[in-house]
Amino acid sequence: MKKIYFSFFIFLTPFYGEGIEPKYLCSHEKSASRWQTQNSTLNQNQEKIDIKFYELNLDINFNSSRIRGSVTVNGVIGNIYPDFIELDFYDNMTVDSILQNNIPILYLHENDMLKIPISDITIDDENLFSLTIFYQGTPDHCGAGGFKFDEHQNIGHVWTLSEAYCARSWWPCKDDPSDKADSVNIIISVPLEPAYIVASNGLLSSTTINSNKKTYFWKERYPITTYLVSLAIYPYTKWVDQYVSPISSDTMLIEHYVFPDRYEASYPNYSLTKDMLSFFSELFGEYPFISEKYGHADFTWGGGMEHQTLSSMGSFSQNLMVHELGHSWWGNLITCKTFNDIWLNEGFARYCQALWAEHMYGREAYFDFMNNHAYYGAGTIYVENPSSNSQIFSAGLSYNKASWVLHMLRHKVGETMFFDILKTYASNDSLSYNAASTSDFQKVCEDISGLDLEQFFQQWIYGEKYPKYELSWWHEGNGIYNVKIDQVQSYNFFSMPIDLKFAGSAGPMLVDTTIVIENNNSSQLYEFSGFNFLVENVMLDPENWILKEATYSVNEIDNILPDRVEVEKAFPNPFNSKVKLSFYINPQFGDTHVNVNIFDLRGKIVESLIDNEFIPGYHTTFWNANGKSSGVYFIQLATDNYIDSQKILFLK
Ligand SMILES: [Zn+2]
Asked: From the CA of 397, how far away is ligand 1's center (Å)?
């Protein structure tokens, strides 16, 4: 989901906090335990069932703004029976009856929960149950919308947006991201006039027309979580395109359901969908729903929502498109196990925007994107209390800082390893078409990289803020440089690899080298030597791979740069055969090693004039350029902490 405008609807939903009692796991419970987590919002009864299938069969009445129909729920019960089958469903919706094998059964509907006593339910040998709930009503506004009767250009328009806890506002379900139904049927009836098109998840298997209604039969045959089940209804202009997989050469339909007035404006960007699909498929592995479709359905909400196989779009920027498409892998293929872990959806989708910027406009655009989405505020990426949309969908934490975690991980493990991790994560047997927690992702990262990433995840996901580095450096003499890095923040120290860029000059050429150091304490001193140039500057993480502040204390080399050597201007200049260079060594420093070299324009040494120890005093050397081509040269004098380079012109 990506909200573009600044208006928040805060809606508190019931939050269940019961713990999970420790118990022996039999085989049925093992299969059921996969969606159980410490922070589940499920109650104990819900944890004991596993949903297999939903069928929504709804009639949409635009005149009365009411929906009426049924939802069939098929599920499996673990060996420890719940007291009730409990389905989340808002109280304002009216349940007319619940049928099992066409026989009405008893139920309670209170506190936004539909409770059916287990004693009244027939459970077969396979522990399967099946219920059909008949209901009607006008769905209440929920979260970012829930189910909305809306208008676009004075024509009725229905859209849904159920993340995080709002599927329950319009259809009864076990409304939790971790328990995906294996498949869902979505059967929707709309009036014949105007010529409504119902767009939804999966593939359209058929449409029928009966008296004054048209019915759309959509089938989603990939596992899907409740908040991704969606409707977008309008007399859309529909156009299609084709994706040819760069991996398998398989083809897939791309469907665009656009508001007629947006058709022309959105066409150029929507035409890029196939390129975006190819780009991400090559990076993360095949588009996860390739047997069905991908597409866009315009809606009137001010943002986008990654509904499985058909993103709902409030606008059509490339940024919004790649964000929602990125969710096909990060959110839809692998769904956050709980909303504490929402960064696994939103941080990844935000990062997809940076990857697309890099792909289209180059490395600089990538870094610009990251720098424009840095977040330095308080709070943890791990959502401590995911009870409302405003807490879950924090732009700073769940989106921006979370995308920086991937940016930092990319540099920490290295380019190739990073994309290996993403591909392996997307194809993980127990996580793909299922749900993952932060620790699941951490484990994949550690398995692939062989690194212990506990500290990395602790500080960035469960910890707050960022390091504030202070760097100072000085030349010890004899080509040895000391660099001191202090972490001056008042909170915990961070452990990160840091790029140190040493820059200086050799002759006329600017040269630099980057060394990666491990930094993990409040104050650390590093010693470097072996540079083949005089270091003039040391920069900390100049490319910005770390979310940080960096300050530099006074470059201490200045303090030990007295006039050990004074170099005169080369003379004559220009010259036509011989040029003179004189220099003076200050007696207080004693004997000094001096190099004088001649460089050409490409930085290559043409001739070495001096490589000797000199006593203090006044000295002179000459360069005889006979036999050389005329042109520009550089005469450079260097000691171990001083460098003087002058441009000289040889004219024959
Ligand atoms: Zn999103």
From this structure: 13
Quick one: how far is CA 493 from the chain centroid? 24
Q: Output the pLDDT for position 554.
A: 59
- Is residue 32 scored above 50 in pLDDT? no
Q: What is the pLDDT of residues 424-457, one digit of tens each?
A: 999 999 999 999 999 999 999 999 999 999 999 9
Distance 389 CA to ligand 1 centre (A): 13
Assign domain 565-650 to a CATH class: mainly beta
- The fold of the 468-560 domain, in CATH, is Immunoglobulin-like (2.60.40)
Instruction: Give 611 Cα–ligand 1 centroid separation in angstroms.
Output: 63
Kindly report the CATH class assigned to 2-337.
Answer: mainly beta
Q: State the distance from the centre of ligand 1 to the C-alpha of 350, rounded, in angstroms.
A: 7
Confirm whether the ipTM is greater than 0.85: yes
Spacing, Cα 335 to ligand 1 middle (Å): 12
Span from the CA of 344 to the centroid of ligand 1 (angstroms): 10
Residues 6+ away with beta carbon under 8 Å from 564: 585, 586, 589, 592, 639, 641, 642
Q: What is the pLDDT of residue 33?
A: 38
Q: How far apart are CA 72 and CA 279, in angstroms?
A: 38
Phi (first) and psi of residue 503, to 5 degrees: -125, 150
Which residues are near ligand 1, the ion (C-beta closer than 5 Å)? 1-2, 346, 349
- Compute the distance from residue 612 Cα to the ligand 1 centre, in Å: 65
Q: What is the pLDDT of residue 4?
A: 66
pLDDT (0 to 100) of residue 27? 33
Give me the residue spans of the domains in the chain: 2-337, 361-462, 468-560, 565-650
532 CA → ligand 1 middle, Å = 49
Q: Do domains 2-337 and 361-462 have the same CATH topology?
A: no
Q: How many CB atoms lie within 10 A of CB 247?
A: 12
Q: Name which CATH class applies to 361-462.
A: mainly alpha
Please give the backbone phi and psi of residue 440, each rounded to the nearest 5 degrees, phi first: -60, -45
What number is the average pLDDT over the span 132-161?
98
